[in-house]
Every structure is written in C-alpha cells, then in structure tokens.
Amino acid sequence: MLPRIPENIRPTGNKIVSPAGADGMRAGVKFAVLGYESSQNFGDEIQSIAAARLLPRVDYRIPRERLRDFRCDEKCLLLMNGWFGNGAQFPPAECIVPLYVSFHVARGAERLYTSPEAVAHFKKHSPVGCRDRGTMEILRSAGIDAYYSKCLSLIFPTRGAAAADSIVVVDVAGGRGRRFRRIFRSADKPVLPFSHAHMMDTLGDEFKSQIAGRLLDAYRERAALVVTSRLHCALPCLAMGIPVIYCGPHEYRTAVLSDLGVNMNLRIPEKRGGVFRKFSEKLRFRNFLWRVDAVDVEPEKERLIALVKEKTNHFISRYTSPEV
C-alpha cells in the first residue's frame, strides 16, 4: 500500500489541488510550489510540502528545471523556497510571480544568480528572503536587496503527545556511521534507520511527495531523538519539537542550524585501542546522546508563517478582484 498523501493535499495529474473554493478564494490567480524532476533527495519534497501548508490552495507543481517553460493564463504565485544550482531554469517565466523566502544559491552557481538578467529579475521581486547568510551575502554583493529569512521547513506544527519510542537515524553513513552504530548499542531505545536519498527521480512528484510525507509521519510519531546529516530532516524535526543531533557538513548551507541553537560541534571520540576506547565512547555518549533537549523554534515559526501570509495577501489584492 502506498504511503498516505501529505496532509491537505490531493494530487490530480500534474497538479496538487486543495478542496475547491478553499478560504473563499477569489478567481483570477493560481498558486504553486516547486517540483523536482532530477532530484534524488526527499528533502526537496519536504520543502514543497512545507510551502503547500502556507498557501490557500496549490494548483501546480512547477519543475525547478523548467521554470521558464511554464505557461499560465493567470498570474501564478510560486513560493521559491529551496536549493537552486546551475540546473534550474532562471529567471522564471513572466506569468510566475515569485515569492522569495528561504532561497538558497548552491556553491558554484553564483554566476547564474548574479548575472545581469538575474539581478534585474531579483530587483523587480525584492526583497529576497534567503535560507542562509551565505546566500544573502552573494545576492547583496550584486546589489540585490536580500535578507536572512531562515527556512520554511521550520513551519511544521509541534507534535502532540507521541509514543516517541525510538532513536531515528537519518543518513548517518561512512566511517562516522560505523562508529555511531557501535555507540548506539548502548542506547536505551530502539534505533530506526532512514534515508532521504532515493533513485525515484523519474517516478513523478506525486509519488515522491507521498514518500516524503510518510517520512515526516515517522519522525513525528516515533522519534524520541533524531540523529542526522540531512538539513531537511533536522529542520522539520526541530519544528515538531523533536530533539536533534546534527552530524553533517558544516558550511554556509547548514549554518542556520547553529543559528537556531542546534549542537553543531558533535565529535566522535578519537580512536583508541582496546578497553579504554570502548569505555570512553560509552561513557561520553551515554551521558550525551540520549539526553538532548528540543530547541524552541516557535518564534521563528510564527515569524515565517506571518511573513508568507502577508506577502500572499498582497499578491491576492494586487492581481484579483472580488467575484461577482
């Protein structure tokens, strides 16, 4: 049986459609989230699930790789939250009204997003909310009005009472992963491994969104603690009130985690021989790994929700008129 569809989203063909007439929406505008034709990371779908929660309805998934090819008779508000590298079509089509919140310029793609054409586009739709300070500085260096918005995947609701009976491990691999697995033997809860990596890029956004929704369900329902190298596992789990240990790359893309107060300095004990090594690992991690507090991100969550609501209402007021 396929995983259930993410909350409040009902896929039909190449669209995601909310119940008809949601929020008494006036005619004449469309709403969209990003789709991902070439992505092999469920973190992308998680970002679009977050974006969909903030819109009155979602009419289209617009592929990041074909933003300029999109055609629509009405103006279409597109939440431009996510990772943008050299593979994206940029700037988008004229019928798209981009809402830049949580925008990230990938390392090596600076030229594309600071070209004269891109700069003119950004200035037309500024200010640009950036997921990280690094992106903000890249855009500001080109004369673009940019600010640090942090990430929309912080808007997921705090979970209620949950069984929280497991330590969820997401993409902790390689040599560090082997050492973690030894340490996890002393854990006081079952360890559940998951991954955001997949080879389903050709199976369509609908199917990938279903799987991403089920991952979020699993984290919400089962995780007493999450240990991950994935930014878009860590951020939604923080939003849901789940304690998180991050053990991935330290770079401008992930610095938002340290800004939020997540422990970014986790170090596996140095390799030592025999009994002392085993004792030091068990002693340190028994007292640390299993006793991590959740980080309060409610102020950030409220700020992001209010920001998108304000900009969405402005879009509606500008491009629609009341139905007769």
Sequence-ordered SSE layout with sheet pairings:
Blueprint: E1 10-12, E2 15-17, E3 29-35, H1 42-53, E4 60-63, E5 75-79, E6 82-84, E7 96-99, E8 103-105, H2 110-113, H3 116-124, E9 128-130, H4 133-141, E10 146-148, E11 166-170, H5 174-184, E12 191-194, H6 205-222, E13 223-228, H7 231-239, E14 244-246, H8 255-260, H9 274-288, H10 298-319
Parallel strand pairs: 3-4, 3-5, 5-7, 6-8, 9-10, 11-12, 11-13, 13-14
Antiparallel strand pairs: 1-2
Helix pairs in contact: 1-6, 1-7
Descriptive account of the structure:
It is a single chain. The chain has 324 residues and is an alpha/beta fold. The protein folds into two domains: 10-152 and 299-319; 166-298, Rossmann fold (3-Layer(aba) Sandwich). The chain has ten helices and 14 strands. The protein has helices at 42-53, 110-113, 116-124, 133-141, 174-184, 205-222, 231-239, 255-260, 274-288, 298-319, and strands at residues 10-12, 15-17, 29-35, 60-63, 75-79, 82-84, 96-99, 103-105, 128-130, 146-148, 166-170, 191-194, 223-228, 244-246. A four-stranded parallel β-sheet has the order 4-3-5-7. Helix 1 packs across helix 6 and helix 1 (42-53) runs parallel beside helix 7. The longest helix has 22 residues, at 298-319. The protein is globular, with a radius of gyration of 21 Å. The protein starts with 9 loop residues before the first strand and ends in a 5-residue tail after the last helix. Residues 1-25 and 268-276 have low confidence and may be disordered.
